[in-house]
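Regression check, flavin-adenine dinucleotide case 566:
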Amino acid sequence: MKILVAVKRVIDYNVQIRVKEDGSGVVTDNVKMSTNPPDDNAIEEAVKIKEAGKASEIIAVTVGEEKAQETVRKALAVGADRGIHVKVDSILEPLAVSKILKKIVEKENPDLVFMGKQAIDDDCNQTGQMLAAHLNWPQATFASKIEVKENSLEVTREVDEGLETIEVNTPAIVTCDLRLNEPRYASLPNIMKAKKKPIEQINASDLGVDTNPRIEHIKIEEPPKRKAGIKVASVEELVQKLKNEAKVI
Amino acid sequence: MSVLLIAEHNNKEVKSFTLNAITAASQIDQDLHVLLIGHNADDVAKSLSEVPLVKKVLHMDNEIYENYIAENYTSAILKHVDKYSHIVCSANTFGKNLMPRIAALLDISQVSDIIKVIAPDTFLRPIYAGNAFATVKSNDDKKCITIRPTSFEAAETTGGSAEIEKVDAADKTEKTKFVNREEIKSDRPELGTARIVISGGRGLQSGENFKLITDVADKLNAAIGASRAAVDAGYITNEHQVGQTGKVVVPDLYIAVGISGAIQHLAGMKESKVIVAINKDGEAPIFSVADYGLEADLFEALPQFLEELNKLNTIQK
Ligand SMILES: Cc1cc2nc3c(=O)[nH]c(=O)nc-3n(C[C@H](O)[C@H](O)[C@H](O)COP(=O)(O)OP(=O)(O)OC[C@H]3O[C@@H](n4cnc5c(N)ncnc54)[C@H](O)[C@@H]3O)c2cc1C
Ligand SMILES: Nc1ncnc2c1ncn2[C@@H]1O[C@H](COP(=O)(O)O)[C@@H](O)[C@H]1O
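Current build output:
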């Protein structure tokens, strides 16, 4: 079984986001970048399945600028076998990314595609479902547990009401939640070994997909700030304030 | 222009977030139709038809829609989208799972999680866990939109009398099977719509200690929330998580106890009207968004809080 994992390079989750004054976007110069957190869970799950002898190959794919390769390199360091970097210079919408990933799936014929449930930059939560639609494959989104069966997966999904379990036939798309597993750190020897693993580079423009943006970003601004509050000295004071000042209890 | 909204329900009742989405959808265009896909859900159809903002209910009834499966819903919805300029639903796990599948098949770039309708093609949406707001304009002919329910009031549920039109079902997928759903039943208000939410974090130290939170919640008729750290540690189940990757809540009162206030947590609660933080670390970032901060050990503060509440003659419910 072959597993393709899609990983995106994003601003690190610990970075305090700053909005550019001209309203054109957020500051990315000299800002720490990392793999989108749930994409680490996606890689980890693929590696665990391979370690359990149920997968033969893991391919990590990213769509992005030159430096996005770092994200693939990191996936290789924790257990992916080879990488694909689809090079684009502009930021693509999930629709365009899903069309590119479809081309990669058609080329590689994986049995499973693992992705993150949501990118923490655009917070779109679309790409996996869109890829599943293009391929007419079943989708198991927000996975917190995956059980590999003969020709299917049993996936536990985190939903508003609690947990839902579905069974999807393979090939399938799974989008991963952060609670799926505990991503491992790359060891130094594995980081060295990863440098020798191959990364194929493809130009997005050679794939023949329409990547033109459909959505215009008119303005990016800072959200309204909350006005500073006060510290109360005691529980008694807190309850009085809630009752008489804020009038919420 | 007219808008097609996909209703979320459990075949007995409309889910409350659908009512918030209805308000947003009617701001896009008044000609709002609701598509109800389900099985034996006549009561739901009737209650939707009584929502004054709804102009028509399309009701698709078939046993294949007993459980919600995105693949089946998608083929059902695609049969009916032609006449509509906008396809919308709520941006909770229901809509997030469903809408991109529809959008991709219509070759539309979806606008996710809008918090404001600026014009029928222009919307405000949070990005980077709410650390920036983007004004976006969709240039697709047809638009697929998901709506952050807590940013819109719930629609009125009585007084309307929209026509209910029965429509045909679509094909069933053989590739996905529903196995089961573990719904945690509770008498408490729903987290997404509660007037008061009290949330516990890692500071609670154990699942047993969450009783301190539950006791106060009982007193205030509050819903219970949690940080991801508390859910990951197994103190409480996942559906309580508030934040970027959990639920977004906008209650009148949000009480954060033993929660440091990571940006991913703030993303889910910082629009609350009044925020209280109880934390023993005076430097905790949660205090920067709190209207009332109490620097104290929660194991002392929570029992005292309950005691003080007990002294009050009246408590708003
Ligand atoms: C991609 C991504 C998505 C995420 N999504 C979410 C999300 O949706 N929701 C979410 O909550 N987090 C999310 N997180 C995690 C987030 O970054 C934080 O790790 C998490 O919110 C921390 O939870 P906490 O505040 O309970 O724990 P901690 O940060 O450990 O804070 C515990 C607090 O309790 C206080 N405390 C301890 N003991 C006591 C005591 N006796 N009395 C009073 N105070 C005490 C401490 O001073 C401390 O401030 C996400 C992270 C990532 C990377
Ligand atoms: N540019 C990209 N390259 C590779 N994978 C991506 C890219 N964009 C999105 N993805 C995948 O799709 C998931 C969801 O992203 P999004 O739909 O943007 O929230 C991410 O967690 C990734 O697994």
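Comparison notes: Chain B touches chain A through 92 residues (CB under 8 Å). The mean pLDDT of chain B is 96. No diff flagged against the previous build.
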